[in-house]
Structures are given as C-alpha cells and as structure tokens.
Amino acid sequence: MAPPKEHILTVLVENKPGVLTRVSGLFARRGFNIVSLAVAPTDDERFSRITAVVDIESAPLDQIVKQLDKLINVVKITELAPADSIQRELLLATVLVPTSRQNEVIELVETFEGRILAVGPDELTVSLDATPTKIDEFEERMRPFGFSALQRTGRVALTKLIENNP
Description:
Layout: E1 6-14, H1 19-30, E2 33-41, E3 47-55, H2 61-69, E4 74-80, E5 85-96, H3 102-111, E6 115-119, E7 123-130, H4 132-142, E8 147-152, E9 156-159
Antiparallel strand pairs: 1-3, 1-4, 2-3, 5-7, 5-8, 5-9, 6-7
C-alpha cells in the first residue's frame, strides 16, 4: 500500500483577527502546499478550528507541525488519519441541462444523496455533502452536461467516535 501523499491537520487556534493570515503565511513562506483549507469558529467563541489538507511531498509532516506549533495563537494541532476520521466536503453546482434531460440529472443527484436547490429552463442548481471521493465521482458524472457554476468547499474533518459495544 502506497503511503498517503496528503495529511489532514486540524489546528485549534485563538479566534482573533489575523490568525488565519499568519497560518497561511507560514505555509506560503515555507513552500508547503495546501490542498484544502477550511476555517470556522468552534462552539467556544474563543477558538476557531482550521482544517488543512497538506501535500506532504512539498515538506515532511513533522516539519509542518513544528512550524505551526511555533505560532503564538496555535493552541493544539492534531493529525487525522483517514481511517480514523470523518471527512466531508460540500459541492454547489449549476448544471447546464435541457428540460428534456433534467430527469437524468435528478436521478444522479438522488443516487448520490444530493439535493436539487433550484430548477430553471435549462439549468439545475444542486448540492451534495459527501466524502471528497464521492464529490469527485459526482462531479465527473455531471461534467458531460456542463456547468455554468461550480463551487466546492474545503474539506472538514473530525475524529471518529469510538463505539462502545455492549
């Protein structure tokens, strides 16, 4: 099995102006490649969580973690192994599709457990919340129809809960 080329880091930071700039600036200065980046406040308003998917071919993971740990506003850094985490991404897209073929797109959206958000004469706006792999597959299946707009969020991830078996 090939080693992963990407790692998922969650970085708990103080919820203060400029923190994201310092974190992203560190990545840029050191030449670390960010594949995906998402940030939002946590349930504690003092903190935000940054989820960064980093390309470890651009720098060793331990070097990235050491550099992040030096930043004053960083509270905690956690690496999430893909097998031990739940990952999601959101896709919003307006698909170009004539009325005569809209049922095909609607069936695909239902197959992928997505939602139809708006219906126009030659377009459908759809959303899908899923794993990055499933989002990739959905996007590929929609590509032949064409897009007038397509937006994907960065990946977000949390550690899986350990189930207690009674």
